[in-house]
Amino acid sequence: QVQLVESGGGLVQTGGSLRLSCAASGRTFSTYVMGWFRQAPGKEREFVAVVNPSGGATNYADSVKGRFTISRDNAKNTVYLQMNSLKPEDTAVYYCRLSTGWLDYWGQGTQVTVSS
Fold it and tell me: What percent of the chain has pLDDT over 70?
């Protein structure tokens, strides 16, 4: 059984920064793709960023490219999302996802609120 626990969300002003963390347990973390998604009120969950098992390859949604950075520390079973130059439209619940290729596991989410 996989458990994913996100942390690091909060309230920040426009232009500020936050770093989200997602700690994983129950699986061989270093062999799986990890991603961040977000869901704003009244909207569908959307892709934010993804990192491959080694951490050597990443991909981002156009809306966050150049502002957000995804990274992972396989020794700590943790994936991070560094968010800079935050905008009010970044306000959402942020979820991490572990993908095995046939199953996806999700964390409980962490709220990020950006005030204007």
Answer: 99
